[in-house]
Amino acid sequence: MAAGCSSPSPAHEPGSPAATKDGPVPVLVKTGCADLVVLGLRGSDQSLDKNFGSGQEILRTVRAMSTDLHRTSRTTVRLEGIPYRAESAASAAIYQANIEDGVSRTRTRIAQLARRCPHTRVALVGFSQGAQAVHGLAIELPASTLRRVALVAMIADPRRNPDDTIASWTYGKAAPGPGKLGAGTPLPGSLKEKAITFCATGDEICNWPPGGYSGPLSQTHRHFYETPAHSRSTGRQLAGILRTNGL
Question: Which ranges of 139-225 would DSSP assign to H, the alpha helix?
Fold first, then answer.
């Protein structure tokens, strides 16, 4: 992946959303209690020291989302990477432990934000391994927590379920297959208006071909979602969901 922005310094969380006054709203803010805090879960082996600790796909997508959202809203947006073990794993057990680490750390961070920033809404955005962690977290969050969540987005989810009733964006081409690790549990109905899954037709991680796949990660999985055109397309979909949910 190409190098991106370095992570911002930790921000103060005063307890209420930041309000901008005059002039354009910054695409991303550093204020802890922004109106919307996006918790980004990066893919395998992506660095915590770049792209706000969330991976280039997520950073570019969230920038595009915020830019589109600001056409109709003054919602302040902050992106924060979750520092979970997003590593290539030597075994299925280690990989699953990494997923559970992502779920646990994200759950804890949502609870912290609820205490420190009671008016802040939360968005969950994951790519690849991070998308699987978001998927796993979303199916187990209690209703009281889900009310704070404005968006759940899974980009290239290895547990993508093509039969799920949540929104699905495949960039104009069919992607009928399940994720590489099999179709995951459908998300709860309470997330139907908040959740979306993204998958490109040539991405074997989220659209496993009927005949299987051998070889290294495809260029589609590695680079499709970070291109300017595709990250803008993804961001527009996210902004639309946020508008539907009052942001």
Answer: 143-146, 219-223
92/147 Cα distance (integer angstroms) = 33
114 close to 105: Cβ distance less than 8 angstroms: no
Angstrom distance (rounded) from CA 247 to CA 148: 12
What range defines the domain where residue 124 resides? 36-244
Q: Is residue 167 part of a domain?
A: yes
Task: State how far the Cα of 187 lies from the Cα of 206, in Å rounded to an integer.
Answer: 16
Contact 33, 15 (CB under 8 A): yes
Reported pTM: 0.90
**Which tokens go with 50?**
């770049």
Chain segment 45-74, per-residue pLDDT in tens: 898 888 888 999 999 999 999 999 999 999
Is residue 23, in this structure, part of any structural domain at all? no
b/e string for 98-132 if b means 16 or more Cβ within 10 A? Answer: bbebbbebbeebbeebeeebeebbbbbbbbbbbbb
Query: Which of 5, 9, 6, 25 lies closest to 17, judged by CA?
Result: 25
**Number of separate domains in the chain:** 1
Q: In CATH, what number is assigned to the domain containing residue 192?
A: 3.40.50.1820
Tell me, yes or no, whether 10 lies in a domain: no
